[in-house]
Amino acid sequence: MRVVVLFNQPVLPSDHPEFDSEEWVRTAVEDISEHLAAGGFSVGQLGVGRNLRALESQLAVCRPDVVFNLFEGLADRPETEFAVARLLEQLQIPFTGSPSQALRLALNKHLAKRRLHAAGLPTPWFCVVRQPPPEGAAVPWPVIVKPARRDASEGIDQGSVVTTPAALARRVAELLEHYGPPVLIEQFLPGREFTVALLETPELVPLPITEVQFTISAAIPWPILSYAAKWHPDSPEYEAMDMLKGVPLSPAISQSLVTLATQAYRVLGCRDYGRIDLRMTQSGEPMILEVNANPDMCPTACFARTLEAAGVDRARLMTDLVHQAAARRRLIRTAPAAKLTDRVPTA
């Protein structure tokens, strides 16, 4: 069986502040390729760059039986993440991971939160804006301000949490200038933060719950998982953050976190694997912050470490995911081949 590992070519210059999160995908590509080759597959690698129109012809040359999808979208065009998955669907090429609709919802945080809210699942108060809100807007202070269409904590730092109308207007204006609209304004929850990773091969099972813990100081007043805390090991925020597996939790809390994560995974239509971030209110009520339908598969990332904590053999998992995707081929409905146009769809 021929497997092509599909990934995004780095497009940002090395001095760009968000270069690190883009570059790490290379580590996952090499690691997964080695595991698949050892599993007996014929493995190729295909990097997707700015010339999206060439992708269909490149796939025709590769002729993969299965695509192992590590494509996370171009750094400056995040909507390409679900556009490329949709092309694979239209070309009837089975691939690992979530389908295009789940990727689209997860990338657009406001759309995902609306879907969760409609399903009756708890998520913090939020609004989405395309310009700074008026000074008299009703806001449940403090709030955290994020780019609505970015992942990997892009655009999040200690200045993301604001407590006054003036600070909110400034932060929204900064994000609009740097990332463009829309901007998500979300109630900041002061309680404990958790991530629940889920694996579906084929039964959906939760992996060990991870708690994200923070050391608060004058320099780091807000306990948030910022971009620096994720990607800059030499930063104070990285040093102040720890991700703890197997933390002692009451059965009621554990069950509540797993139930909410499973429901969110299902509501957004995720597939194969995913990671759900949750945080507690001051009174200890868990709420869903975000659904990651395409978590980082790098061997040092949180998802991989959770697999290790659960005793999941990484090499065996990669093989199982490919076989699972191949089995979906017979379920793919007949559809005409499609080409990416100059205009990549957005939400």
Based on the coordinates given, report the CATH architecture of the largest domain.
2-Layer Sandwich
Write down the secondary-structure element order. EHHEHEHHHEEEHEEEEHHEHEEHH
CATH topology of the largest domain: D-amino Acid Aminotransferase, Chain A, domain 1
The count of β-strands is: 13
Walk me through what this model shows.
By secondary structure, the chain is an alpha+beta fold. The chain folds into three domains: 2-96 and 317-331, 3-Layer(aba) Sandwich (Rossmann fold); 106-122 and 189-311, ATP-grasp fold, B domain (D-amino Acid Aminotransferase, Chain A, domain 1), CATH 3.30.470; 126-187, 2-Layer Sandwich (Dna Ligase, domain 1). Helix content is 35%, strand content 20%. The chain has twelve helices and 13 strands. The strands form three sheets. Strands 8, 9, 10, 11, 12 and 13 form a six-stranded antiparallel beta sheet that branches. A four-stranded antiparallel beta sheet has the order 4-7-5-6, with helices on both faces. It has a three-stranded parallel beta sheet with strand order 2-1-3, sandwiched between helices. α2 (25-38) crosses α12 (314-327) and α4 runs antiparallel to α5. The protein is globular and about 60 Å long. Mean pLDDT is 90; it is low at 333-347.
From the structure above, extract its key features.
6-stranded antiparallel beta sheet, Rossmann fold, 347 residues, 4-stranded antiparallel beta sheet, Dna Ligase, domain 1, 12 helices, D-amino Acid Aminotransferase, Chain A, domain 1, 3 domains, alpha+beta, globular
